Amino acid sequence: MRLFAAYSRHSALLLRRGSSGVVARSTRSIHNVTVGRIRTHGLLARRRPTLPRQPQQHGFFTSSDKGSEPDSKKTTSFPVARLNLVPTDPKNAPNGVPEEDGKSKGADETAWYNFALKFESLSDATDVEWSADKIVGFILPEWSKFVPGYIRKLQRELSMSPGSLADEIWQEAHDPFINPEVQYAAQVRVSNELCDEEKEFLSRRKRVTTMALAKYLDIDEKDVHPEDVPTIAMCGSGGGLRALVAGTGSMLAADEDGLFDCITYTSGVSGSCWLQTLYHSSISEGSLGRVLQHLKARAGVHIAYPPVAFQTLLSAPTSKYLLSGLVEKLKGDPNSQFGLVDVYGLLLAARYLVPKGDLEVNDRDFKLSNQQKYIKYGQNPLPIYTAVRHEIPDVDVDGTEGVPSTSEAAKEIAKQEAWFQWFEITPYEFFCEEFSAGIPTWAMGRRFNNGVDVPPEEGFHLPETRMPFLLGVFGSAFCATLSHYYHEIRPLVQSLTGFGTLDEMISGYNDDLSKVHPIDPGTVANFAYGMDGKLPKTTPKSVLNTEYIQLMDAGMSNNLPIYPLLRPGRDVDVIVAFDASADIKTDNWLAVADGYARQRGIKGWPVGVGWPKAGESSKQVSEELKEAEAASSREADQKLHEAQQHQIEHQAEEDKPRPDDNTKKGQAAKFTPGDEESGELGYCTVWVGTTQERSSEPSPPSKALDQSTHWQLTEPDAGIAIVYLPYLANPKVPGINPGTTDYLSTWNFVYTPEQIDNVVALARANYAEGREQIRGTVRAVYERKRKLRLEREAKAKKDRYRRLVQRGMAHKLGEGDQFS
């Protein structure tokens, strides 16, 4: 049993209010002690060497003098309200650290110290008689009587006193046997190419997918050439727990069909990132069936239900693994911040990274780089996790001595330049394509400057950023802008009589609302800090001058993680997209990807994919497609500028209200497959692009393929094939409709085993509707690649023979030595 340091409010007050000698003694302590190569901050840990005493700061969890006055009144204010999770504005302070009385705070007065002081305020809650029968019986639930005990124990665990959990975590944070990455330096890799580790993975995965493809297409394995095997990627949308459960069902159906073994990449947003985390963990060991069983065992309790959440955070062995990231971040980085995303991530990890029974929790599941174990030999697809940074230029500063600018032209430029930057995280690398730069995943969390990590004072670097925080970032939809928030409730406002004027007024301020985040996103160290002149021109200047960046749910930009799959070097041939978004037709995330394809100049992307807009004629679609094609390099540059605005324009688009949209019937209709003959999308839709060079003539629109046009997949100039499977209602699974079933809401965090079975059954049924179409698409792409390879080989053979003829050696073939 761990020995906890005794904590006494009374003894602390006696030391402070005693004689002058006692006061002098109590106000002096040792806060910076070097033990070997490790410097500890805060209270002494274990052995105490003889060193000069230094002035003492406030204790981490001691009472203030004000609170010790006899006439002080106890408060019944809700304790969490006193824990300020939103950091103060550090804009005017150097390095993001606020100043006090003109002096910057010391090491112990920064991240960890501030967190400790704020958390100390929760001790007031323990002085209130919460367990009184009347309070519990009429106002508070039964479990509330245990809250004071939970808080006191959590305070002891985080007190950093000798023997506390926080002290143990901080000591192990510098142990290279527990955290090997702390002994290695890291530097920023500036390149558009894939990292060497991913290239090695691709060569190994190719051998696995070659065998899997032969089985999937019922072909003799010896007849399948590795060059003919298409690179297939599978992506899952965001949507919280709905996307997690539905995505599990969709991928499980693909696995049973043999398709999943042919996949090279998986990518996710929000809930699909959570799915990838569970799949590449000791919980499932690469088994989607075990992921499903785990969800049934753990999804029945809300992530924020206090008794269960506190119990997991305070009980061994789960407490140590869950709180390690928090202690390491705040104690190791003096400028780090603690916010709602950190709390959210802790709650998610406590529920889903801990298996049933708690005792089988594995510490290796709490680092993303450890997922290399599950892809080391190419036995599983490479997971790609996504997050975005919202680049918002300062509209009030014109760049000259920080003078505010009221220029309407400057504000208009700023509106056009606000966009989302995509970051991807694999078990190998944390990368941003817009920066053309990245760092090893195990180096996430440490500070960088001028392309190299900042040398640590303690002799060791910080451990890798833990999964709980990343889970919070991946699913932090609550960090959306005010524009996103209003988009969620706009149908309700439009349905209320007399609120049309209010809707028009709010919509008129959409540009301003799209720049305000009521809740701060998660903060991570910026590896591009100080790299001015070393990164491409696409890198915003603001990134080069800030030591930290804020990341949030990638669904703020596009709820389908297609962008990372189009990165040069990955050469994806087929993208299978499972879309479990909240409003698939209105948001039309496939169409949003068009802007990215134009901006990056992606060859082979099928222009014009996605759901047709309501009331839009085929002529209008053709006109839009013509505008999307650049006929010359001059037009291409102009389109590049326009593409950067595409995402913000998508957010600002005002959807025309329809009378039945907000009714039960209208919501159900949104998730009903349409008439495919009239252009609506069904359970499975396939598009194929073209690799033809652009000319003065615009490319024809990309149309959904049917049996009569399926031959286009085998054309030599065919491009990327998109297989789209939206999460729609299916009559084969009655009683569940994504538009009307309450528990399928994005904000629902409780699913019973029966509800999970229903969600999975619907996903399986929808996959079954398009099973043969998917198989036919993969076969057609394989045949096309095989045909092109044979043509290349025949041409190479003919060219070689022609060279021999020119050298007069063709007639000598078969004569002379054994090498001719």
Q: What would your notes on this structure say?
A:
- The protein is α+β, with helices and mostly antiparallel strands.
- Among the domains are: 27-152, no CATH class; 481-516, no CATH class.
- It contains 27 helices and 20 strands.
- Strands 7-13-12-11-10-9-8-18-20-19 form a ten-stranded mixed β-sheet.
- Helix 8 (240-257) crosses helix 9 (271-279) and helix 12 (318-332) packs antiparallel against helix 13.
Please give the order of strands in the largest beta sheet.
7-13-12-11-10-9-8-18-20-19
Q: Helicity, in percent? A: 25-40%
Mean residue pLDDT: 75
What kind of sheet is the major sheet? 10 strands, mixed
- The computed structural class is alpha+beta
- Spans of at least 5 consecutive residues with low confidence: 1-108, 395-407, 617-637, 654-661, 694-698
User: How far is the N terminus from the C terminus?
Assistant: 79 Å
Catalytic activity: a 1-acyl-sn-glycero-3-phosphocholine + H2O = sn-glycerol 3-phosphocholine + a fatty acid + H(+)
InterPro entries: Acyl_Trfase/lysoPLipase (IPR016035), LysoPLipase_cat_dom (IPR002642)
Domain PLA2c: 180-811
EC number: 3.1.1.5
